[in-house]
Amino acid sequence: MTAASDWSGGADPLPGAGSLPGPGEAALADILRLSLDALDTPIGRLYLAVDHGGHLRVALFAESDAIVRRQLRHDYGERGFDLEPCADPDGITEKVHRYFAGALDVIDAIPVATAGTSFQREVWRALREIPCGTTTSYGALARKIGRPDAGRAVGHANGSNPVAVIVPCHRVIGANGSLTGYGGGIDRKRWLLRHEQSGSLFA
Fold first, then answer.
1. For residues 114 and 121, is the Cβ–Cβ distance under 8 A?
2. Each residue of 161-182: b (16+ CB within 10 Å) or e?
C-alpha cells in the first residue's frame, strides 16, 4: 500500500495507507475521516468520498456504497478510515451535479487526493490536464509524462483510477480512435465524451 498524494497544490500530504499503524495501534488522529455522498446522474449513481480537508478521495459509479468501501480498504487498510454519510461535503456533490447539467468546467478545481503508486499518481495528474471536449491515446499520454515506452502501464494505471469523471480517464481512447475499456462501462464512456463535446464549458 502507498501513501496518499494531495493534488490541490500546496497542502501537506494527508494520511494514507503508508502512514497507518498496525491493527489495534491506530490513534484516532491517524484515521482518515471521510464523508460519503451519492449523486444520481444520467448514467447511474455516482458515489463520492471526501476527506475532512475537502479533498475528493473516491468517485465511483455503483449501485451501493460497497464498491467505495472496498476501494478505501484497498487504499488505506481495513481500519484506516472512517466513512460517514454527509450531504454535499465541501460543495463537491453540487459541483459534480453542475457538470452533468452542462457546466463542464466546474469540476476542474475540485481538489483530489489519492493513494496509489507514484507512477499511477503521475498518470492520474496527467489525466486532469487533458482539455475537456478532447481525447488522447494511451501512447500519447505515456509520451506526455516522459515514458514513451510505457503505453501499456499507462493503460493499467488509467484503469485503476479511483476518481471517475473528475480525473477524466474516459478521455483516453485507443490509437485507432476506438473507445477501448472503461471501468464504468463503454456506454458511460461514450456518454461522457458526447456530453463534453456538446456541453458548455462555462458555469
1. yes
2. bbbbbbbbbbbbbeeeeeebeb
Residue 166 in any domain: the answer is yes
Does residue 101 sit in the same domain as residue 129?
A: no
Which range marks the domain in which residue 137 is found? 117-198
Number of folded domains that form the chain: 2
Query: Which tens digits make up the pLDDT trace of 54-76?
Result: 999 999 999 999 999 999 999 99
Which amino acid would we find at residue 76? Y
| Residue bearing cell 463537491 | 92
Q: Which pLDDT belongs to residue 196?
A: 96
The chain-wide mean pLDDT, for the chain, equals 86
Tell me, what's the pLDDT at 5? 52
Does 102 lie in the same domain as 129?
A: no
Measure the CA dihedral 104/110/114/118, to 10°: 80
As a whole-number percent, the residues of the chain with pLDDT over 70 amount to 83
Residue 17 belongs to some domain of the structure: no
Query: Is there a domain that residue 16 lies in?
Result: no
The secondary element (H helix, E strand) that includes residue 59 is strand 56-61
Q: How far is it, in rounded angstroms, from Cα 15 to Cα 83?
A: 15
- The residues that are catalytic are 169
**pTM (two decimals):** 0.84
Count the neighbouring beta carbons within 10 Å of the beta carbon of residue 51: 22
**In angstroms, rounded to a whole number, what is the distance separating the alpha carbons of residues 50 and 86?**
9
SS3 for 192?
helix
